[in-house]
Each structure stands twice: as C-alpha cells, then as structure tokens.
Design a protein that fits this description.
239 residues, alpha/beta, ten-stranded mixed β-sheet, eight-stranded parallel β-sheet, 3 helices, 26% strand
Length: 239
C-alpha cells in the first residue's frame, strides 16, 4: 500500500520509506534515514535531527542530508516495521553508530531516543521517557512514564521500569525496578507468562535472572531463548 503523508509533513533528502507508512501533520523526517513498512508516525514528530553533541555538526538537514563519515558509518537512523511513534516523540541521528529502532515498538507522546541508541523489537517507551545517548534497550522492555535513562546504560530484554525512575546502571533481563536511583524490586513474571512461560519454567529461570545461575535450556520458548542467550553474551540487541 502507498504511504499516507500529510501535506504539512517534511520529508528531507536521504530518507527512504517503505510501504504503508502514515506520517502525521507537521512531522519532520530528515536523512539519512531508512524506515520500513507499516509504521504509524503521529503529528509533530522529529526523526533524524542531529545528535545532541556540543562538538558535533548541526547541518541544515531538512535542506540536504549530511554526508557523514563512511569510515565510521557515523550518521543515520534506521527504523523497522510496524512501529507506532506518537506525537512530539523525537529520534536523533547517530554520531558513532546509527540510531536504531526495531519492529513493533510503541513510543508514546514526548518520548525521546537519543543519538546512537539501539531499541529492540516490541519495546514500549511511555510518555516522556528520555533515553540518553548510546543507550541499549533490548526487546520487550517496558519503560514507564517519565523514566530517565543515563547515557550508555543497558536495559535488558523484558525489563519493566516503573514510572518516574532514574536509571543509572544496567537493568537485567525481565527484572522490575523503580525509584531514583532505580533499584530492582523483583522479577517481571507477568511479562514471562505473556511470553508463554509457566510457573515451573519461571522458577527454573529465576536464578539466572538474579545473576546466580546458568541460563536453562528447557522451558523457555525458542524466540525468547534466542534473545536471552544474546543478552547473556551482551551481544547487539536482537528481536
């Protein structure tokens, strides 16, 4: 299906759009940026403006796409398929690596994805969540309203961060944390059940979640096991 782009939206040079995307009024998308298919992008969204780096370049990106540094692949935004990006959300260009958003994410009103951030599949960023530069948010994580994540932090797959939290360190897979500074308060067993795990499998997984055991091979759905295994090795976030 064709893209539906409001006439007041601005799509700059160097932007590649897949099919069946909706782009709302007064939204600005500047390149280089690659967006997949079936994304819903609301009004007053900004995607691809320069990273907030005091010493970095601030080109007039809505006139022409910045060339970047091919040796470092330093610029760019890459967004997958089926994402919902609500009004006033912002996504900045990368400075040392592309800023990436996976598939099926939900970015609520006013959320911010800083430069060089990687957001995995199925992530939810509630209203006014702020991700500092070089943050990694792994698949299925859910960050509550007003959460602030310090630059360079990692949020594990399936983690649940309570609203108003200030995250200053790594949050493990399928853990629940809240507060300022954010502290772990338990296991996101609701999230694990939603991923197809029963009580016995969750109990077997609990030592690994708490950093006191090995990742069990049994009882974890294959797709989820793949994500957990990647997290265990601290590899690049995957779906």
């Amino acid at each position: 299906m064709a893209n539906r782009i409001h006439p007041t939206a601005l799509i700059g040079a160097g932007v590649e759009l897949g099919e069946d995307n909706v782009v709302g009024p007064y939204t600005v998308i500047v390149g280089p940026a690659v967006l997949g298919a079936g994304n819903w992008i609301g009004p007053h969204v900004t995607i691809g403006t320069p990273g907030e780096d005091r010493t970095g370049p601030h080109p007039v990106a809505w006139d022409s796409a910045p060339a970047g540094d091919p040796a470092r692949d330093g610029y760019g935004v890459r967004i997958g398929d089926g994402n919902r990006i609500r009004e006033y959300a912002s996504v900045h260009q990368g400075t040392r690596r592309p800023t990436t958003i996976g598939n099926g994410t939900y970015l609520l009103r006013g959320s911010h994805v800083g430069h060089d951030v990687r957001v995995g599949d199925g992530v939810t960023l509630a209203c006014d969540v702020l991700l500092g530069g070089h943050t990694d948010v792994w698949a299925l994580a859910n960050l509550g309203m007003g959460t602030v994540v310090h630059q360079g932090c990692r949020i594990g797959p399936g983690a649940m961060v309570g609203m108003g939290s200030a995250v200053r360190r790594e949050v493990g897979a399928f853990l629940v944390c809240v507060g300022n500074p954010a502290r772990v308060t338990g296991i996101n067993d609701v999230g694990l059940v939603r991923q197809g795990m029963d009580e016995a499998a969750i109990a077997a997984l609990e030592p690994w979640l708490k950093g006191k055991g090995e990742l069990p091979a049994d009882g974890v759905p294959d797709d989820l096991f793949t994500v957990m295994k990647a997290w265990n090795a601290r590899e690049v976030p995957t779906g």
